[in-house]
Amino acid sequence: MFSLVIAEAALEKIPVELANHKSILNHARKLDRNPSEIFLDTSYHHAAMLNSSLKYWWKRGRPDIVHFDLLEANSTPLFLKGKLGIYVSTIDNKLLIIKKNLRLPKSYVRFEGLMRNIYENRDNSRSTSLIELRENIEFSHLIKKIIMPDIVIGFSTRGKFRKLADLISHHVVDQSRHYCFVVGGFQKGSFSEKTTSTFDYLYRIDNYHLESHVVISRLIYECENLPD
Fold first, then answer.
1. Residue 151 phi/psi, 5° resolution?
2. In 3D, which of 47, 36, 4, 52 has the Cα closest to residue 185?
3. Which of 182, 192, 201, 220 would give a disulfide with 154, using CB separation of 3.0 to 4.6 Å?
4. Own/partner pairs for 108-116, CB < 8 Å, 24+ apart?
5. 3-state SS, residue 125
6. Under a CB-based contact definition with an 8 Å cutoff, are residues 179 and 172 in contact?
7. Where are the beta strands (DSSP E) in the chain?
8. C-alpha closest to that of 63 among 42, 80, 49, 82
9. What is the pTM assigned to this prediction?
10. CB count, 10 Å around CB of 144?
């Protein structure tokens, strides 16, 4: 069994400390929504993020990364066969559990609408039964109490270099065990020490800075090619 966690994911509603910033209010007015109903997005809210005391602002405001990552993972044979669990652990300690048979919208606009329905607990949406949202779930709790894998492997440019095929063949030697892979759901920076403290191993698989959806696609492909 395999699990994939998109960790410290840059998917969050507008933080309270930014709600009254001019750029946030203007954007909310254009959308005819309250600031609390909008996802933080650096494309629209960069000025507010830059001029505030928002912690780790450079890692936040990229919900599109989560969309790319989920599209990459949940359309694979490994997920469709029920051999891959997918989780999104956000930077503000929310947890999204992706259920079997979910088909994500390819359009980001529709994806954002789906996430808004889930965050606002609109149970009349069929898709909300396929994505479970939990509040106040720290990453360590997700690993130790919910996934409970045998081995946790993280991927980061700060990790030890090893070819992906080699590390998979070295570590994944018994598919009756539970292997958890962790990639970052943010654009800049690295995992926090709190996150990496839960890893058994931390690797980088290329000398280039690969985007998370590229790592995910290569990782899942290697897992699918393992002998049964």
1. -140, 135
2. 4
3. 182
4. 108/64, 108/67, 111/67, 112/39, 112/63, 115/11, 115/39, 115/63, 116/37, 116/39
5. coil
6. yes
7. 2-9, 84-90, 95-98, 131-134, 151-161, 179-184, 201-204
8. 42
9. 0.94
10. 13
Q: CB within 8 A of 13, min separation 6: which ones?
A: 36, 37, 38, 39, 40, 119
> DSSP letters along 154-196, please?
EEEEEEEE--HHHHHHHH---TTS-EEEEEE-SSSS---HHHH
The CB density around residue 143, as the number of other CB atoms within 10 Å, is 22
Q: What are phi and psi of 116, to 5 degrees?
A: -65, -40
Q: 54-78: per-residue pLDDT in tens?
A: 889 999 999 999 999 999 999 999 9
pLDDT digits (tens, 9 = 90+) for 114-131: 999 899 875 544 455 789
Residue 70, CA atoms < 13 Å, CB-side half-sphere:
29
Report whether 60 contacts 184 (CB < 8 A).
no
What distance separates the 2 farthest-apart alpha carbons in the chain? 56
* C-alpha dist (Å) from residue 50 to 45, 46, 53, 57, 58: 9, 6, 8, 7, 8
The sign of the dihedral angle between the CA atoms of 108, 64, 113, 217 is: positive
Write down the mean pLDDT value for the chain. Answer: 93
Pair 151, 177: CB distance under 8 Å: yes
